[in-house]
Amino acid sequence: MLAYRPLASTTPIKALSRCHSTATRFVNKDLYWRRVPQWQNVSIEEFIDYRWQLANTVAGITKLSKFLHIVLPEILAPSTNPLLQHIKTKDDFIQDALEGIAAAPMAIRLTPHILSVIDWGKALDDPVCRQFLPLKSSIVPDSPKLTLDSLHEEADSPVPGLVHRYIDKGLFLALSICPVYCRFCTRSYAVGGNTETVSKSPQKPSRKRWEVVFQHIEKTPVLEDIVISGGDTYYLQPEHITEIGERLLSIPHVRRFRFASRGLAVVPSRTLDENDQWTSALINLSNKGRREGKQVCLHTHFNHPNEITWMTREAAKVLFENGVIARNQSVLLKGVNDNVETMGTLIRELAAMNVQPYYVYQCDMVQGIEDLRTPLSTILDLEQRLRGTIAGFMMPSFVVDLPGGGGKRLAVSRDTYDPQTGVSTFRAPGLHGSKGEKVYEYHDPVPRPATGHPFMKFHLPLGANSAVDQFRPLVDQAYG
Ligand code: SF4
């Protein structure tokens, strides 16, 4: 076990102390990053070093092109997606990716861990690659209902950087940068650098800006629950984690808070780096919170089992052994995790490493990612098939974050759903004011199957293929 020593809040955070050297602890492990030609000689110690991870992160199109030229084979495995079958060579792929990036709302940033778990020979269909690299040929026209800020977060912010939607919960947006940029980010309107299609206002970590948020929380006693997000809190300095956490712990009415970070999924090695103190800062806060009767947790974000390696399990073990509650929030994405086998495996893998599968989100109605969205029927089908396959407390809630700021609702709680029009309706009576009375609409991606087609049914008999598998030929046909 990696022991940790509690520290007073004013004491500088120290690294987790280790009983053995890195080499001794991790013998006979798969050095999976060595499958990337550039990193053939990178040692386990180098890979674990967070400074190495930062130095070798691929950000921007120049670095990406260089990386792709080295990592891709000359000839790629053919795609199963008819839209991508004309892409056969390395040069085809790079050209298509560069054109896709030019039209995308999110910038490019990928960590060495993520770059190492992609199967580059099959990059056209790789479920991890698909989350980060837009290919121009796979992009399909947006439904007219899509917007950049589909959850109306800016409209629900009483002060800049704090979204107050649910009665007792606040979402503190502490920064706008992340270790990776996901194509489908719900905060495409703000997160990451400018792209050719979206101008953003960068939110750097700023004590002055945070102070306005803290003061608002202090004078709003109804706020018991705070999410610290961004961006990704992995890009906050350990001192920032401590400072934010200590300030929130000092507010009597704040009962619980969580740091939102995709870090465990995209840079798990950081938790094993004894020279880096981000995890120590979190552990210290978690323990201090527990002593005060308050929950301090980590909410992370895995979407596919391929993101999980032995290093991820080791990192999750450090958190579990040190008492940090970690929960996962996945996004349901077409061609990534929209089938029972993949989602079931992901849930079981998360449970096995004591990261609670908490939410599976219907992909938000965000512009520029129509090719990643699934119809509501998919999430309903997945929930129906997966419930009962694992203990109830490890079964995630399958939810829709309602466009227009209605908050998260169970997908099965829809009032109406017509798969022919692709429109589902929900209400959110738990919200205050007019929000609690509104009817919210979620719109399936277009195109939809023709009226009266037998695949309209979303409650499929057990034993049939998942709904999405049955929809796919129709969608492919429509686009083909
Ligand atoms: S890590 Fe989270 S906040 Fe950052 S781009 Fe991905 S989804 Fe958005």
TrEMBL record:
GO terms for molecular function: 4 iron, 4 sulfur cluster binding; catalytic activity; metal ion binding. Coiled coil: none annotated. Its cofactor is pyridoxal 5'-phosphate. The keyword 4Fe-4S applies. The keyword Ribonucleoprotein does not apply. It comes from the Eukaryota. SUPFAM superfamilies: Radical SAM enzymes. Keywords: 4Fe-4S, Iron, Iron-sulfur, Metal-binding, Pyridoxal phosphate, S-adenosyl-L-methionine. PANTHER family: L-LYSINE 2,3-AMINOMUTASE AQ_1632-RELATED, LYSINE 2,3-AMINOMUTASE-RELATED. NCBIfam families: KamA family radical SAM protein (TIGR00238). This is Kama family protein. It comes from Lojkania enalia.
